[in-house]
Amino acid sequence: LIDLHNHVHYNHIPLWDFDVHLSDSQKSEEGGYTNRYQWGNNWDYGPSITWMKTNIQSTYRWDMASEQMKYAEVQAVSGGVTAMQGSPSSGTQAWDSILSRNVELYNFGQDGISTCAVCGAADDDYTGSHLISQSEAGTLNAWFVHLSEGVDQSSKDEFDALWSKNLIMDETIVIHGTALDSSQFSKMASVNSELVWSPLSNLLLYGDTTDVVAADQAGVSISISPDWGPSGSKNNLHELKVADMWNTNNLGGHFSNYELVEMVTCNPADATGWTPFVGRIKADLYADLVVIDTFHEDPYRNLIEAIDADVALTVVQGKAVFGDVDLMQQLQGDDWEYVNGTGFQKAVDVTSLTEVDGSQTFAEIEAGLAMAMRHEFDDMKANWVEFNGDSDEEINAWLNTTFDGDYKDNVNRLKNLTLDPIFTSGDDRYFDVINRSTHANYHIDLTKLYDNYYTVEMENGDRINVNVQLPDDNTNTGNNNNNGGNTNNGGDTTTLPGPTDNNTVDDDDDMFADQPDDQFIDEAEADEATKNQLKLILLIIVIALLFGLYVVSRGDDDDLLNSQTTVIDKIWDDEDVNESSSDSDGKDDSIDIKDKVASAMKSSGLSAVRLFTAIDQTNDGYVSRREIRTAVNTLLKDSVKVSDIDAMLDTFDANGDGVISLDEFLTVMEKHQPKQFVPVLPDLKPPPK
Fold it and tell me: pLDDT category, 680, cuts 50, 70, 90?
């Protein structure tokens, strides 16, 4: 499932229990707010939302930004969400390389996502010329803009303002669009702009939601997303239920079960420009998957009605990150920990020894956030840098003036709030807040939400009395050759980039004419005869990595390389290299590692392209800092410094975009030895006896 509308750094905060602070004449027909600029002025917004976010993230206070983000992503993957939009900027890999994908950050070698949550795009002085330029240059994949969020004329006018600036374009993803009418949706459809629908948040804030039937009839692609914790569902799985209720009770069942499921899978993937990568279960796409226990004969209805305990497994890029305990044990060994729900247990893996703060366990994260959200005096005094050395009297005086909010009465109004639970099932407060909102229940009886979906008889997390006989599926789903034989219920016939490069190159320009068999290597299909060759490739990766380090550290190569000679020698011995690439005359001083590597490359038919694809584990055509680090850590056992990895990346990264393209890689390799693409390695001392 793909979430295209969230504010992830707020998702530790429970559903906001508020009273609309406006006069009756200022409220919407339903009794809610009329636009997005009103509810932020509610006097309780600071104590319940802003302070709960700011205090958690501030380095001078709780300094738990990475813990908060990882907690929010556990909440997401618990509902099968494999990618989320709305993450804050990060200078660390503490969470942006763990659990769910972050849409704005590096994904599939792309960096073409822009977001406007509160940027004032509809203001007169906002031109958005940079977005138009990126669109014309083909470097903009998607522009997420919060637009027309409300039910009044001013909200509606925002769209017209952006249309007049030519900012409603193919890459524009309109978040909310609650005030839009048929004519405006037609304009969106004319330029292939997309819509993100967040029904629960709309109902809780305004009392009404987007006219998605008008959008659909105009031809606008629709995605479903939950918005954020303070006024939305915990993840897509639960937002689907609100959308399903609205569809059944208010739209006459306009959307089929299949179409609703499209709104959390292929529609958001297509909107983001991720069609070649995720959003469908199909050969050659990334393994971003959710597995749901079967209890309904209709697989799409099965997903819509699924609740927390039904999520058997969530997989991101082929790695199991959340699921049933028995499945996680099989897939992750002992690298997981319990997440407790009401009447059931799940397992999650939040640790990664290659990431900053990657050793934090979920139990530690959960306990720390729960402590922080209580705002107890002794805890704040012990942890907040701002209180260093202050007396209790001084601290209390500061709290009274800093956290009196809009009341301005010198009274500390910091709240003791409960950390938002991971699971919706068993969260009684969540349903209570929804049930008591009169404006949210104006057009639909949301008090039936719990009874319609969550009153399921279970035993140890499994539904009881389930007897579903699924028909045999004899459909030919094709293979990994992209030969046009694939079929699926959605009628998707997109041709995806597969393992064969069909680009046409003139003979005079073919740098690889002397290099036969430059196809990608599928290690999963490697037979016994190719294993030795793959081992050689791993060895070459090590040498190539050292070569990169050497280029940027030429002045101090002995210190840099001596620490690796034992490791290299151990790898060499373990790989049992054939005689053509080894020196067996017993003269240690004459061992020439450069010749050994060159010989290995020639005997294995290894080219620079194959070397690049071996490092490029995601097969997206780019080598990232993380992929380099993974290769180094796997083969050299963390013996290379992060600063050296950064230097290595800079060596090959000619355009400074933070990743290495194949062209950049080949340029450097060709420069050093154009004929064979074998790196010119520095002289290495003989390995120790």
Answer: very low
The phi and psi torsions of 593 (rounded to 5 degrees) equal -60, -35
3-state secondary structure 2-55: EECCECHHHCCCCCCCCCCCCCHHHCCCCCCCCECCCHHHCCCHHHHHHHHHHH
CA neighbours closer than 13 Å in the CB half-sphere of residue 308: 27
The structural domains of the chain, with segments of one domain joined by +, span 2-365, 523-672
Burial, 389: exposed, middle or buried (Cβ in 10 Å; 0-12, 13-18, 19+)?
Answer: exposed
pLDDT at 134 over 60: yes
Q: Identify any residues that bridge with 173 across adjacent strands, giving them in sequence order.
A: 144, 194
pLDDT band at 476 (very low <50, low <70, confident <90, very high): low
Cβ count near 334 (within 10 Å): 7
Q: Quick one: fold of 523-672?
A: Recoverin; domain 1 (1.10.238)
Sheet hosting strand 345-348, strand order edge to edge: 289-292, 311-316, 319-323, 345-348, 337-340
The CATH H-level (homologous superfamily) assignment of domain 2-365 is Metal-dependent hydrolases (3.20.20.140)
CB atoms within 10 A of CB 167: 25
Give the C-alpha distances (Å, rounded to integers) separating 440 from 209, 429, 447: 10, 16, 10
- Return the CA Rg of the chain: 28
pTM for this prediction: 0.70
Ramachandran sector of residue 517 (left: φ over 0; alpha: ψ -120 to 50; beta: rest) = left
320 pLDDT more than 50: yes
Both tokens of residue 449? 């939400």
Contacts 24+ apart (CB under 8 A), 531-534: 532/575, 532/576, 532/578, 533/604, 533/605
